[in-house]
Design a protein that fits this description.
It is a single chain. With 314 residues, the chain is an all-alpha fold. The chain is 77% helix and 0% strand. It has 13 helices and no strands. The chain starts with a helix and ends in an 8-residue tail after the last helix.
């Protein structure tokens, strides 16, 4: 984490910053993709709000000592208190509760497919709210990534939109809206605080909201297995603390178009992790879907490098 944090202070060359930011988003996509399968396993023992609460209690406990070490002088401005609390609610409390609740009710394929609409939602909201302009190359890259995600998650023809899973599908859609709103709200806080500061305080607020909500599941609380606890530790450290730190860093160096585009890789990783962890089958068309997504990312980044006015850090 330290090498990424140092870039906030040193202001390295834009090309180096852009490379690190892209690597950060790649790591985020991989770890978040794996988390779908892990969540599915843990939810068989732990209810959704309780799982989210335990996960982020641990993640917050991990990040606070790091924050005190690498950014001890930063303080939350009173004027930003409402924004920080709202971003914590949208990006931690609401999103992860809805995601867990949706995954528990719908199929893994449906959850991955619905998750792939996040970039479309975020970019559309970014254009409407912030009047962000996107180039033809960016539109092409977004189209490639969206098509690739669709091919990858629907190739097994197991998408089930029947009434038995309809509620879960709607919950997943709501989760994606929550995440898109969180991404845009975070944009207004990026210039004031470091990535580790942002996510630490957002997790703190999100965990406080989750603590209040968790009492609704009191009658479902049970002692769960060591295996489930191990998976929760993985989710807390890698999929939460590390991923949010890297995601915050990437948002500071890249724009919404690129960071949200990488999220199209999440369902691809989800398919592969499902094969490794849950024994799901990977078809050739799913592989090519991943290739198309990578092509979309290359197109977007090439556009960023070849247009001086769009270069990161300028």
């Amino acid at each position: 984490m330290k090498i990424f944090y140092q870039q906030y202070k040193t202001g390295a060359h834009p090309l180096f910053n852009n490379t690190l930011a892209n690597l950060a988003m790649l790591a985020v996509a991989i770890l978040w993709g794996v988390s779908f399968s892990i969540n599915k396993i843990v939810l068989s023992e732990v209810p959704p709000i309780t799982l989210t609460l335990i996960r982020f209690l641990i993640a917050t406990a991990i990040l606070f000592p790091i924050l005190k070490k690498v950014d001890p002088s930063s303080k939350l401005q009173k004027s930003d208190f409402p924004k920080m609390a709202l971003s914590g609610f949208l990006g931690i409390t609401l999103y992860y509760y809805l995601q867990n609740a949706g995954v528990a009710l719908t199929t893994a394929s449906n959850a991955s497919l619905i998750a792939s609409v996040t970039p479309i939602l975020a970019i559309t909201m970014d254009v409407i709210i912030y009047r962000t302009k996107i180039s033809v190359a960016q539109v092409l890259g977004i189209g490639c990534a969206t098509i690739g995600a669709y091919l990858a998650v629907t190739a097994n023809r197991q998408i089930d939109l029947s009434s038995a899973t309809f509620k879960g599908n709607l919950i997943m859609v709501a989760a994606m809206f929550s995440w898109a709103l969180y991404t845009l709200l975070n944009k207004s806080l990026q210039g004031k605080y470091s990535g580790v500061f942002l996510i630490t305080y957002q997790m703190l607020f999100g965990t406080l909201f989750l603590t209040l909500m968790s009492f609704a599941e009191y009658d479902q609380w049970r002692v769960f297995s060591l295996k489930a606890f191990g998976y929760i530790i993985f989710l807390a450290f890698f999929s939460s603390a590390l991923c949010f730190f890297l995601y915050g860093y990437a948002l500071k160096k890249l724009d919404v178009v690129i960071t949200t585009l990488y999220l199209n890789l999440v369902p691809i990783v989800g398919v592969f992790s499902g094969w490794c962890i849950l024994g799901e089958i990977i078809l050739p068309v799913q592989f090519w879907g991943g290739v198309i997504i990578i092509l979309g990312i290359v197109v977007i980044n090439w556009d960023k490098f070849t247009m001086p006015s769009n270069r990161v850090g300028q």
